[in-house]
Every structure is written in C-alpha cells, then in structure tokens.
Amino acid sequence: MKMTTPMITISLIINLKYLIPSWLQGKKIRQGLSWGLGVSAMSLLAACGSPELPQGSAGINSRYNDQQPSLSGNGRYLAWVSGRNGRHQVLLYDLSQEQFMPLPGLESEDALQESPSLSLTGRYLVYLVSRDGRPAIALYDRFAEETEILTDSYPHWVRNPNISGDGRYVVFETARRGQWDVEVLDRGPNVEPDLEEGAEIYEEINQTQ
C-alpha cells in the first residue's frame, strides 16, 4: 500500500499557500485543499483495491522467475506465477489483447500464490495459497471478483490443483493417506458453468418407460 500519495498532495497544496497573495487566500485555498484530499483518497483506494500489475511494455517473460503456466480452454488467457513484484503472485494475461488483466478481490497480496489453473474462458481460476503456513486451494471468480477457499476445513496437505473446463470440478493431490493421492472435488450442480459466449445449456431429462 502506497501511503505517500496523500502526503505529497497535501504538502504541495499547503506550500502553495505562501505563494498566493493574501487576497486570493481563504475560500479558494480551502476548496483546493478539499479537492486535493478527495483526489488523494481516491488514489489511495485504487492502490489498495487492485493487485499490482506489470507496467509499461512488460510482456509475459521478465528478468524474474516466470513459471507454472496455465492456458484457458479457449486459448485466450494465460495464467502463471511470477516473481517480478518481489513475491510469488499469479498474473493473468489476455493473449488476444496482449495486455495484463486485473484481478480485484484475489487472495491477500501477502499470501504465497502457486499452481494456477484456468477454466474454459478463464472465468474461474484455482491456485494454491499459503494460509497459516499450510497450502490451501483457492478459487477466484473473475465475474464476481471474489475468492473462495475450497479446502478451508480440509486437514491434509494439498498441491497441484486443476479445474475442469466448466468450473465445476477441481482435481488435486492430497497427502491424506500419508502418500500423494488424487482427489476430485465436486462444487455441485448449482455452480454457474463457464461457457463460451452464446453457448446454450441443455438439460438431460431421464424418462422411465
């Protein structure tokens, strides 16, 4: 969180007071200070509310470690783990637009993020996050801009999560039996599926004869 923005703005406005004639001071100075504080507050909230994205012409690769790539089913979005901001974080890149995508509401910036996996159109993103020193599987919904911990009550170690194209199933490795095994988590039939735009959902009706 960058706390320098409001301090710099206030300092500049206050210093300008001594450069303006006394007959211009008063109401106009107060209005300027109020406007400056408003702009600073919005800048501060924007800095806190969205993850830090690579700036300028930064591409997929950098001089830092970029690893563990995952491609969405439609081939448009690429997610991977990058160390370019001084920590392990998941980045999302739109290959068609050649730009990084913001991930507001993603798990805390202080948490270690690894092993991303994308659904068909990149709506759902599952990844490993470190919580209290233990790995947990998190699911991020880009439409809702919310993160859900899928293994919050799961007592065993987990790794390498992968999500199905429709976003309903998550497969992962677990050490539940003292060795690495494979488990599948069903998010349930009420999960909104990740479908291509314009796709229709057909419900199968079983009829007894």
TrEMBL record:
Signal peptide: none annotated. Coiled coil: none annotated. Gene3D superfamilies: TolB, C-terminal domain. Belongs to the TolB family. This is Biopolymer transporter Tol. The lineage of its organism: Bacteria, Bacillati, Cyanobacteriota, Cyanophyceae, Oscillatoriophycideae.
